[in-house]
Design goal:
Layout: H1 2-62
């Protein structure tokens, strides 16, 4: 009887350990996906800022000789 109880506890611990591991694995996957999404957002913002800087540069070059105060 004692042997059966120890075996049941060992099986239960094994099942719990496996469940915990799979839970951690799922969390790690979600974290990785979140980081990837965050980097995609950052890349999109950098692209937008690059376009904005090009427009500003073009504006400054185009108006370079017209804004001199004497």
């Amino acid at each position: 009887m004692l042997w059966l109880t120890k075996r049941e506890k060992a099986i239960e611990k094994s099942i719990n350990d496996k469940r915990d591991f799979n839970h951690l694995l799922g969390n790690q996957k979600q974290i990785s996906e979140g980081i990837s999404t965050g980097f995609d957002d950052i890349e999109e913002q950098i692209k937008h800022l690059r376009e904005l800087m090009l427009r500003i540069e073009s504006y400054l070059i185009r108006n370079q000789g017209t804004n001199h105060r004497e």
